[in-house]
Amino acid sequence: MNQTKEKQKYTVPALENAFSILRLLSRNRFKESTITEISNALNLNPATCYRLLRVMEEMAIVRYMDEKKRYTLGPYLVVLGERAKEHLDYLLVIQPYLERLTKETQMTSILVNKINEQKLAIVSKAEASDFGVTVSVGRHFSITDGSFGLCLLAYLDEEKRAAILEQNTGLRPYSPHEIARIKKECEALRKRGFHITYGEYIKGVCGIAAPIFTEGGKVDLSIELIGFTSRHDEEDLQEKGRLIKEAANEISRKLSGNE
């Protein structure tokens, strides 16, 4: 008889609500928000929201702007962010590859990290200096968005992937026909090692992404090159796809301990 127990899920409402506030304030739309705006957006009791914000203000993880009567992210988060970067060894491994890819291709390079079953975040970048696409570290996306998302979606089991696609939480909804097409694209990505988008998600923007494998063949990371379709034709992207695949393979070997 299998005695393995499922990992128990614990909930701490105050902690979860505090973190929801931080996530909300990290979004451009809510970067400076009143208590009413925060409580409405998160469906929190205003009194609870106020108490949480006061404690977080004392810890300097949020800041109250007296002149505007609004809250924004606090200065101590900068300290935590810098410490996190120092402790996440994979960032030190991958950043030189992003800079090299940007130099070789004149496209912006990004590293995307899975943060839960359906969400990704940009955790590092190297922006092209001349007419390159500008991105923000910390920006969140759905796992169904772009080439970088498909790189992670392709390595989920088929049932989980279908359930996520049907929820339509990404930049655009998918029809049943498009979901069938994405299934084929996932199969092609696993064989080819990279995936190209050409204006399908954001008009005028193209991307080439490749998955990164860590220990045990886990795929929680991908790297992508982003540029404007006006500067890169699809044939050009095929060659750049080979470059990003080589870089992803090298990174994968280092992170999985095979080099």
TrEMBL record:
InterPro entries, per the entry: ArsR-like_HTH (IPR011991), GAF-like_dom_sf (IPR029016), HTH_MetabolicPath_Reg (IPR050707), Tscrpt_reg_IclR_C (IPR014757), Tscrpt_reg_IclR_N (IPR005471), WH-like_DNA-bd_sf (IPR036388), WH_DNA-bd_sf (IPR036390)
- Sorted alphabetically, which PROSITE patterns does this protein's record hold? HTH_ICLR (PS51077), ICLR_ED (PS51078)
DNA-binding recorded as keyword? yes
Q: Does the keyword Transcription regulation apply?
A: yes
Enumerate the spans annotated as HTH iclR-type domain. Answer: 12-75
Ordered alphabetically, the record's keywords are: DNA-binding, Transcription, Transcription regulation
Q: Which GO terms describe its biological process?
A: negative regulation of DNA-templated transcription
Give an example GO molecular function: DNA-binding transcription factor activity
User: Pfam family of this protein, just one?
Assistant: HTH_IclR
User: IclR-ED domain spans which residues?
Assistant: 76-257
Q: Which domain of life is it from?
A: Bacteria
User: What is the protein's name according to its record?
Assistant: IclR family transcriptional regulator
